Amino acid sequence: MGDCCNHDKPEPTPPKPAMTGGCCGPKPVQGGEGDSCHSEKGRPDYLLWISGTIVLACYVLYWLLDGHPDLPQWLVVMTSGIYELINRMWWGLLAAVFFVGLLDRVPRDLVMSALGKGGTVGGIARATLAGLMLDLCSHGILMVGTKLYQRGASLGQLMAFLIASPWNSLSLTIILVALIGFGWTLAFILLSMAIGVVTGLVFDRLVSRGVLPANPHTDGQNGNGARLGSQLLAAMKTIKVTPSGLFHLLKDGLRDSKMVFRWLFFGLVLATAIRAFVPMDTYQTLFGPTLMGLLLTMVAATIIEVCSEGSTPIAADIVTRAAAPGNGFAFLMAGVATDYTEVMVIRDLTKSWKIALFLPLISLPQVLVVGWILNQFG
Predict the structure, then answer these.
(1) Residues with Cβ < 8 Å from 89, sequence gap 6 or more?
(2) Which of 13, 226, 315, 338 has its CA 20 to 30 A from that of 180?
(3) Rounded to whole angstroms, how far apart are CA atoms 138 and 56?
(4) Is 140 within a domain?
(5) Other Cβ atoms within 10 Å of 273 Cβ, number
(6) Pick from 162, 182, 174: which is nearest to 355 by CA?
(7) Residue 59 confidence (pLDDT)
(8) Which pairing describes strands 27-28 and 19-20: parallel, antiparallel, or unpaired?
(9) Residue 27: phi, psi to the nearest 5?
(10) Any idea which of 1-15, 93-107, 196-210 has the lowest mean pLDDT?
């Protein structure tokens, strides 16, 4: 096509899809099922607009009224929490919007060659490594993961990508090393990768047995065996970056990320409300290296919905102050497996509650076992 990211050729059946311009040339306009992840046409997305308005109001209030003596304490905690989290994650979310828009323009064959064949150990391992390589927050990774699924990744590859990646970004890894040391950080990374691979293989096996529905976007083309290097070189030769194209890329990425922003804003509101009304010291003293402490950590990780930037220092605090490395690992991993943002986005993406609920069902037992072992031998 002579653009920066070729697109799959549309099926030669009328009518032809409408096209819009982008940084990488024209792309098919999303329609029908492609828009199902957003609110229905003609109906406002109340969750997105209400949660987003609260987040914006709290951010502005903190910026305008920081240090005002007449503010109630709960409002101070909520506004400062949202201000802090937004300032930490904005760059990750912006990068995620860029990658979502870019992936929408990358040829499907190139994406699937990079991920490998779904249902295989190699394909799951590649998806896990891809998640580790992207320096994005947990919600940013979720945006990119949904686009990979829409580009044909298997269900197991999607789960491996999501589970192994959120707090394993370069920036958070450096922070974690500073907080708990290189040894524990490396152990956490390797163990999270192992859980990602195992979970991905289990999901693909359940799909092959008909227990879970397969990705309808694969069309039998997942892992076509084409050489990744030659496809990458061919794609790079067609790159043509323009200001107008970059604008359209970001615009399309933002549009396709609405599904995640909807639950992200709601999660920010809920998380900061919990901070405001549940004292931090209360749950920190309960999370010792015992089975009960591990279970309480899992419950807290489920309730306290924070982005990876927020969960990393909390988990490190559990490791150092409570002397419970297994609990810290469980807090990081259970926050992903039981994250209602992730569960709801997966449900919206796959149109299946069964798939969404199988994520914690398959991954949480592994997290519990690994966390218990770390506490015993840590």
Answers:
(1) 137, 139, 140, 307, 309
(2) 338
(3) 21
(4) yes
(5) 15
(6) 162
(7) 92
(8) antiparallel
(9) -140, 150
(10) 1-15
Question: Which residues lie closer than 8 Å to 320 by C-beta, 6 or more apart?
Answer: 179, 180
143: helix, strand or coil: helix
Alpha-carbon torsion, ordered 276, 282, 284, 290, to 10 deg = -140
Q: Higher-confidence residue: 331 or 31?
A: 331
Number of domains observed in the structure of the chain: 1
Q: Which whole number is the average pLDDT over 282-303? A: 81
Question: Of 181, 190, 208, 192, which Cα lies nearest the Cα of 120?
Answer: 208
Q: Is residue 226 part of a domain?
A: yes
| Predicted TM-score (pTM) above 0.85 | no
Give per-residue pLDDT as tens, 175-226. Answer: 678 778 889 989 998 998 899 999 999 999 999 999 999 888 875 544 444 4
% of the chain exceeding 90 in pLDDT = 17
Report whether 95 contacts 144 (CB < 8 A): no
CA-to-CA distance for 65 and 332, rounded, in angstroms?
33
- What pLDDT is attached to residue 56? 94
Query: Which of these, 236, 241, 258, 242, lies nearest to 30 by C-alpha position?
Result: 258
CB 239, CB 88: distance < 8 Å: no
Mean pLDDT across the stretch 84-94? 76
Q: In this structure, what DSSP letter does residue 26 have?
A: -
For residue 16, what is the DSSP state? P
Half-sphere exposure of 326 (CA within 13 A, CB side): 22
Distance of CA 347 to the CA centre of its chain: 14
Please state, in angstroms and rounded to a whole number, the distance separating the CA atoms of residues 273 and 267. Answer: 10
- The conformation of residue 300, written as its DSSP 8-state character, comes to H
Residue 29 located in a structural domain: no
CB-based contact 235:6 (threshold 8 Å): yes
Q: What is the pLDDT of residue 32?
A: 37
**Taking each helix axis from N to C terminus, what angle separates 155-164 and 353-377, rounded to the nearest 10 degrees?**
40
Structural domain of residue 132, as residue ranges? 46-377
Token pair for 337 = 């497996």
